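Title: Comparing notes on inverse folding

I've been comparing how different people in this forum approach sequence design from structure. To keep things fair, I'm posting one structure and asking everyone to reply with a full sequence. Here's the target:
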């Protein structure tokens, strides 16, 4: 198929979206569309965000 638009939706710092890493030769497709938490808590105080941002409920809430 040609001329098919692909959006890659990424919630903030969802750690799963970095796997597999580029240095292993993998390249994600599509134009990245970032979702962000508002207000954004500082990552240094909340490192668990890397795992929690993968929860589907976060994607749904932030798409509203």
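Reply #1:
Here's my take.
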């Amino acid at each position: 198929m040609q001329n098919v638009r692909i959006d890659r939706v990424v919630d903030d710092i969802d750690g799963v979206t970095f796997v597999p890493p580029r240095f292993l030769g993998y390249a994600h497709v599509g134009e990245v569309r970032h979702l962000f938490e508002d207000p954004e808590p500082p990552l240094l105080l909340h490192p668990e965000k890397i795992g929690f941002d993968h929860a589907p409920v976060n994607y749904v809430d932030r798409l509203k």
